[in-house]
Amino acid sequence: MPDTAIAVLTRDLRVHDNPVLAAAAESARQVVPLFVHDAALAKTGFASAPRTRFLQECLADLDAGLRRRGAALVVREGDLVTEVGRLAEEVDAASVHIAADVSGFAARRERRLTEELGARRRPLTVHGAVHTVLAPGAATPQGNDHFAVFTPYHRRWAEIDHRPLAALPRRFSLPASLPKPSPPGEADTGSTMRGGESQARRRAHQWLQEHSDEYHYGQDRLAAEDGTSRLSPYLHFGCVSARELAAVAADRATVGAEAFVRQLAWRDFHHQVLAARPEAARRDYRPRGDEWRDDEHALRAWQEGRTGIPIVDAGMRQLLTEGWMHNRARLITGSFLTKTLYIDWRAGAVHFLRHLLDGDVANNQMNWQWVAGTGTDTRPNRVLNPLRQAERYDPDGTYVRRWIPELAVLDDPRELHQPWRLGTNMLNSLGYPAPIVDLDAARERFQQHRQRANRGTSSQ
Ligand SMILES: Cc1cc2nc3c(=O)[nH]c(=O)nc-3n(C[C@H](O)[C@H](O)[C@H](O)COP(=O)(O)OP(=O)(O)OC[C@H]3O[C@@H](n4cnc5c(N)ncnc54)[C@H](O)[C@@H]3O)c2cc1C
């Protein structure tokens, strides 16, 4: 057996069910688990302060997990390809392992790494189905390289055997030639969501045990604290494996847990779309001839949660405060930006990526496109009415009261969701703005835009 293998960890920051670590441990006597703070990633504008803090916590926790098993995390900074090449020489690595990923950035990086290590005669193994349950491309429809509609994808996803869980190596050891690094530092910010595999496993275990069976009731209730798992930041950084979560939830065999597994399939679905069409991170997946409005004032009001539509403002303020937003609120605020204000989905996606702890190119960009009707939604012109959504998903106003303290004095949910009904003087005294847009007129305008564009497309 060769002496040394390198496991390059990217956003698979865990020791449980980690095919990259497991394969490296099986292939050599010693394993160097490596994480590189990739300078190129910072230049893409993708790195954000909240996610950088969360990442730091993930690395510290991963290092602790590795130390309990006899190794430690080696952390480097710079160009990932250069750093891996350099370390491979330093430790005379017989093989290098890394997870496949779906963005254009990751694909280019993987190609460069293959060339770099090939030139050094050090084989690279790229593992699929590390970040997702099913590897992108593992399920394809006839004559196409990816599924463009979720329902048939989900059907196939459920039929296919998912990979077995990766064995957890009991002990690792670093090569003696490599000085044991000091643990990565982390700032204690006292934030509500701390990064790391220990937190992720605790949360997953507790939520699956206590709440997943009622998921189908609670998943759209905006005010329910445990209605959804809140595991998304942990899934984004791979502190918990989507494959393992799907297996544990499926074993519960309840309607709620099955609905939860379906959401994991949505996550896979967006990953396989982006893997096949990496340009969809920026370009319309299905162009609709939109001529988006340029309205800085409205965009800023939306970003700051001051549009005068309480359910929209509540979601936007949750994002700014928690670095997370309920999925139903993401749908409402996204529809409001793109279809009511008719502002480009890219402006919304950038803002979300700046603030979300779970900010993820596949899930964020493809969901934004879905909401804007330029993506995979089979009803691209539907406009969510925020007032109906508020009535349905925040019927007693708890969510709005939680995030908009100015309105918390209002007892009647109808007044809370439509405070303009109380008149300008009352709004002024509450210190809450009047709506920045007439909802009915905006819906008409959007539908006219799309009809005009459709006529334009069909006459071309
Ligand atoms: C405009 C918009 C932007 C979004 N941006 C992101 C993003 O950057 N990162 C992100 O992880 N999710 C994103 N989502 C999807 C979804 O809102 C979040 O995954 C979910 O709210 C996370 O909360 P949770 O962990 O409690 O989810 P749960 O309801 O507990 O679901 C479990 C997991 O399934 C996955 N999931 C759930 N819903 C979706 C979905 N619609 N699409 C893809 N995966 C899903 C997530 O990984 C989630 O953690 C976005 C949705 C919209 C409408």
Polypeptide structure, described:
The structure is a single chain. The chain has 21 helices and five strands. With 460 residues, the protein is of the alpha/beta class. It folds into three domains: 4-129, Rossmann fold (3-Layer(aba) Sandwich), CATH 3.40.50.620; 132-163 and 198-276, Alpha Horseshoe (Serine Threonine Protein Phosphatase 5, Tetratricopeptide repeat); 296-459, Orthogonal Bundle (DNA Cyclobutane Dipyrimidine Photolyase, subunit A, domain 3), CATH 1.10.579.10. The chain has a five-stranded parallel beta sheet. α10 packs antiparallel against α11 and α15 packs antiparallel against α16 (361-372). The longest helix has 22 residues, at 255-276. The model has no long low-confidence stretch (mean pLDDT 95). Flavin-adenine dinucleotide (FAD) binds at residues 219, 228-232, 235-236, 260, 263-264, 266-267, 270, 327, 330-331, 334, 352, 356, 358-360, 363-364, 367-368, 371. Flavin-adenine dinucleotide binds next to α9, α11, α14 and α16.
